[in-house]
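Quick one, T. Sequence first:
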Amino acid sequence: MQAKHEKYNLLIARCQALAPVPTAIAHPCDESSLKGAVEAAELGLLKPILVGPRARILALAEQFQLDISDHELVDTPHSHASAAAAVLLAREGQAEMLMKGSLHTDELMGAVVATATGLRTERRISHVFVMDVPGLDRPILITDAAINIFPTLEDKRDIVQNAIDLALALGVKEPKVAILSAVETVTPKIPSTVEAAALNKMADRHQITGGILDGPLALDNAIDLAAAQIKQIDSPVAGLADILVVPDLEAGNMLAKSLTFMAGAEAAGIVLGARVPIILTSRADSVPTRLASCAVAVLVVHARREHANQAVMG
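Structure tokens:
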């Protein structure tokens, strides 16, 4: 069995060969968010731009003996202004990542999705957990357990594509995507099985690219090869999934929290589909989880840069 955090440590190690990414930290006005930004900077993951009330941030840094003298500080009066200013930095290209500080997630995401001033693209915004589960030999991506409550089929197409793009950025060559439900057969009485079949066909028609899809699959058959073999499921994904696509937010939230609190997993997270990746950290996150979330976002940025360079050259 791999040591705790080994998968996350490998992600962080990959980033240390890369240049730090300019990152707007929205309202880092408590110990965990300011310390998290400083620790990520010390590891060479990011170059923080601290966005919030100047006096409050300086007082926090002094109280907790954090050296922020090398970091840019953008003064704002309150959390709402911090969210708007951080999003503007990303919109103008001065920051290539956003990181949530001590403000509410809804406050930051409200600024992100604002029609005239936000960071929307043609892609649906979605969240992906990158789970480090003891006993599994690979990180498992779970989506969407944090943003889209009851996603439509069209939403799920983007949710799947966002997760595939992330897996590719993390170095998974051909991500295997399991569309989860309660059963393995298409059953009209269970709508998620019908949507799974439709997503498979979308992949066949290149409406979803870069990964191998299969579903519907129950959770055991998605991640446990023996369980898939017992049920005689003929699939390139069954038992080998890198990405688990859940039917709705409730199912995803329960799955991620079950792995965290009953299986000892860690849950790094990132929001995709906007102009820049967004790191949504929680005060409950461990230091390795917080840093892994930063590392995941850094790898996304560098993958996008590489793709852009190839497009210019090609």
